[in-house]
Amino acid sequence: MNASPSQPSTWPPAAIGLAAILILLLWLAGFTGPSSPSAAVDALWILLTSAPLAAAWFVAAIGLGWPLRLWLARQSEDGLAIQAGIGVAAMLTLDAALGSIGALQVFGGAGTWVLTVLGAALAVAQLIRTGRIEVSKVFPHWLVWTSAPAIAVLLIAACAAPGVLWATEFGGYDALSYHLQLPKEWVAIGRIEPLNHNIYSYLPSYVEAAFYHLAIMVGDSMQFVYACQLLHASLALLTAAVLSRFVTRIAGTAAGSLSFVTLLATPWVIVTGSLAYNEMAAALMLVTGLLVLHQERLNPAPRAALIGIVGAAACGAKLTAAGMVALPLAVLFALSTRPKQWLGPWAIGAAVFVLVLSPYFIRNQVAAGNPVFPFAGAVFGRGHWIDEQFAVWQRGHISDTNALGRPVELWNQFLRFGVGPNPDQREPWKPQWSILPLLSIPALALAISATRFRRISIELTIVLAVQSLFWLTFTHLKSRFMLPAVVPMSAAIALGALAFRERWLLPARHGWGLRASLAATLLVLATVPALIYRSEAGNAPSSAIGQVGVFTGDALTIEQRNSLGSSTFPTIAVNHLLPPRSKVLLIGDAKALYYDLDRIDYQTTWDRGVLSQLMREYPDDPARWSGGLRQQGFTHLLVDESMLRVWERAGWNDPLLTAARINEFARSWCELLYEYPHGVSLHRLHDDLPVKD
Description:
With 693 residues, the chain is mostly helical. The chain has helices spanning 11-28, 39-72, 79-100, 110-130, 135-138, 148-158, 173-179, 181-189, 206-218, 224-251, 253-264, 267-273, 279-293, 300-317, 321-336, 343-368, 377-380, 387-397, 405-415, 436-449, 454-474, 486-503, 511-534, 548-552, 558-567, 570-577, 610-617, 622-631, 641-650, 659-669; strands at 584-587, 600-601, 636-640, 670-676, 680-685.
């Protein structure tokens, strides 16, 4: 590898930065409880065994981006960064498409390896053809290494078993119920397909398709969860790197590195990035699109095609990206193109957009007769849902807060989230945005006042405005759903800092003092995620590192299974303590990841399962409910009373499945086996069946 001749070598700070990350990883692993003294060893083992799988996926993605770059962005000055973004988009799309037809699991998973090797071969061919990688483009400035504390938290948290870390995400509830659960079920089925008991399988699920890809590569093991978390962590790092390249193009390497650190120092990025979520894929597509829009050598047609790719891939990752990524990019594209040139490029962009999302549209059309199910039910059909479910889904995903209350929610959930008094004591309250939103507003004003940054600053303001309006209008007003805004805000802060220095004409003799002050400030900001991490899981966050086998019970002795399964973890009881051929119906518990699939049946709060059907058929006859469950093979009930009450208060639950009604049924028709913390209980259904008429 050769350093750029125009810049000094960056290897000394890079070596120091990497060493700092390793040291911090070992230090953070010390944040454990007495039951997990080997967290550092477990973390290093996970990084050595799971990170290569995530890296293989990324190498293949970058390789797949090469032909697209040659076709659409050959003249781009930032071709490698754009290639990385569109390569990830291509890999996500191929995983979704090939997974939907079962091609990834043919011949025992050979399809997955063929796709991976093909992409990797393209990456190697590109490296052979180009001959070198410019180190200065990979490590642009020493300031990037002030992000070491945040990167260390990102990596160490990605080594933790999901379900423990991050109170604001309730232990990664979404990963336990669908981000990771769906790939696990798809592997068992042999393909990606919608599942009537888990409505989230009807979403595009492009990132979950990538997790499915990794699950196949790992094989029949729950260890795939670590590779998935590390993949999403890598998407966070890549997002920061592409953002750095974007800002470097406008304001130089120091500003680019400042934006890199600012993005990674945002706790929400570390929280979501270390979980098997999908936010960072959407953020990556946004910054890739911004970079594409600033390629002067690109003609409108290829620029439109590229925007179509990244906009659709963002929606494939997370549907709210339609307003947080695709819409802002479309607005900027319209503003950057002459109206006379709109027709052709817009047609190309729209066609590419539909093509990239076609695996989602086709899969849903086949399964539900509605390409966007569970949306637009009145237009395309309601599939297997009843009208009540559409109403509940609407209540759960679009807020009913009035027009005056919505700006208040923007203030609470975005601008001051985690700072000051908590407006809702039922929700966790931690500074997941740090000072990013409040700092970005004056930074934008400063950047707009500087002539050379005015255009890009106005564009960033437009992006933030569109995102905020969409969040206020079409979401349920939760803080995390503003996450793509981290891209324009991080860029704005970098530009604002440079504009501040230029505006006040700070003399060169203060250069070292300014650099030291800036580095110290960035280090403090990058330490905020570490402080939040330290406060997680009863101040022992690293105790969950490498503990997947504990939560399933697979890594425990018989004595440990009996002890923990009867008192602490219902997953262990269901997987190991119940008799063979037991079948458990989960009621109020959709966190199915750690359960043996052959032993359970579950549904999300939006779906209606077997007990709901029996209650509708026999409204006032619990004996029929019990008999119907036994006839369908169920032997046990696992009841999460606390979650049932949460769903009831939110108005999301099946109105028949109330906590009071389920408790009465369990007392009358079941035998209580075990009680667990937080209102969870395991019951055995009585063997006697009702007399048939």
